[in-house]
Amino acid sequence: MGDASRHGHDEPDPSTFSAVRARLAADRADTLARVAALSRDFDGIVAANALVAVDDEHDPEGATTAFERAHVAALMTQAREHLGELDQALQRLERGQYGRCEGCGGAIAPERLEIRPAATTCVRCAQSAAPPRPPHRT
User: Fold this and answer.
1) pTM of the prediction?
2) Which end of the chain is more exposed for a tag (fewer CB within 10 A), N or C?
3) Cβ-based burial of 117 (10 A; exposed 0-12, middle 13-18, buried ≥19)
């Protein structure tokens, strides 16, 4: 019998638990480093603009500066959201709920968790929750 049968849903194989925890922790550390780097980039953009009287509306470089600032801010928001998702995934792991779909309660495919370790839904539930795609035009 396989490990899933021996250990049941609430008691994952200890080696699997450790591997998942390590992968989530590594992703979390990378994300924290990305947030720190983006924060430095954002502070650098703001500091550079403080040295010059930038009028975003009339300065030829103003639009570029405003775009860079907005872009870095959006990336920081995205990284912070991912950090929150990883923290929630770690909590689900500790509670023995990691890898269970919040939609249907079924197992999330290991391949999906490999690609998206913080996934909370199986592919079927994720697809049914996604907004419909516009038709493909040729």
Assistant:
1) 0.75
2) C
3) buried
